Amino acid sequence: MAEKRILCFVFLSFFSISVFSQSENSGSRLEKILSKKEIVVGVNKQYEPFYIENPKDGYPGVDAELAKLYADYLGVSLKLVPLKTFRQFSEDIRSGKIDLAFAGMSTDLNRGKQVTFSDPYLVTTPAGLVSKKILPPEPEGNIVTSRRFMSLGDLATLSGLVSFSVRSNTTNHIYLQKKYAKLPIYSYLSDSIAIDNLLSNNVTCFVADSFFILTLLQKNPSLKANYLPLLGSVQEEYISAALPQNDLIFVDNLNFFIKELKRTGVLEELRSRYFNQNNWVK
User: Fold this and answer.
1) In this structure, what DSSP letter does residue 225 have?
2) Measured CA distances, 267 to 41, 105, 254 (Å)
3) Distance between CA atoms of 93 and 228, rounded to whole angstroms?
4) Nearest CA to 266 among 125, 62, 126?
5) Does domain 126-137+150-230 have CATH number 3.40.190.10?
6) pTM for this one?
7) Band of pLDDT at residue 2, cut at 50, 70 and 90
8) Residue 195 and residue 168: Cα distance in Å, rounded?
9) Which terminus, N or C, of the chain has the lesser number of Cβ atoms within 10 Å?
10) Domain 29-124+238-276 has CATH 3.40.50.300
């Protein structure tokens, strides 16, 4: 069913040329894309399953699928360019090496000075993976119990037992500094190092965005035996596409595309297929 809905969306592509005349597109990157009949999209090669290198058949990644759907909507061919950092994405968009970026990218005010962001196609939150050793046992004798620990905010009641690891200079790091400034917070250059510190018992909670935590558990389901995921929302973080600055025609076109994917359920099906299931895991 999911595949049928996604494929049906492709039929919208024949509208793309008729909607925008040459005069309306003058000066927009969209005109150049339609003229050369190719769109070049940057993707994040370090953030599965938004983009998956050497993927299993039918599972190229959320952003790879979105880029293909958008190219089909415009009626052009697609070229994907895997990159690593926001600086690479912003510079390549500005120079014209790529037209836009679907890169599992969260928005913030500083980034908004360098690119124009689309409407969000996914919403995430700072989330955690906490050691069950520091959590109080569930009350005995109750047939139905309510979980006391659903989000990072719930850890406030355990302040003397909690220490955090997180990738530095991220929205998750900033959230911890505001919410838990008096608790130990250890920041690292990569998520993998931050995770290793949790597994080595150097800290009691690893913090990343909710999609990263879900992905980690899909790749390593055995973690659930000793760690509890805290996925409840504490602060909305928007995952958006990055486009050239002030190109209102281009961003308006992409925003319409995103709204239609939301309305027709395509985005929800993509989210579920990659973050609620592990068929894509190699």
Assistant:
1) G
2) 18, 16, 14
3) 39
4) 62
5) yes
6) 0.86
7) low
8) 13
9) N
10) no
**What six digits make up the tokens of 107?**
């928005």
- The amino acid present at 49, given as its one-letter code, is P
- What is 42-73 written as a DSSP string? EEETTSTTTS-SSPPTT---HHHHHHHHHHHH
All CATH 3.40.190.10 domain ranges in the chain, comma separated: 29-124+238-276, 126-137+150-230
Identify whether the C-beta of residue 65 lies closer than 8 Å to the C-beta of residue 44. Answer: no
CB 105 within 8 Å of CB 187:
no
**Of 117, 121, 44, 30, residue with least CA distance to 76:** 30
Would you state the structure tokens that stand for residue 243, as one six-digit string?
A: 């486009």
Enter the tokens of residue 237.
Answer: 């973080």
What does the pLDDT look like over 70-105, one tens digit per residue?
999 999 999 999 999 999 999 999 999 999 999 999
**Contact in structure between 105 and 242 (CB atoms under 8 Å):** yes
Residues in the chain: 282
Q: How far apart are the first and last CA of the chain?
A: 23
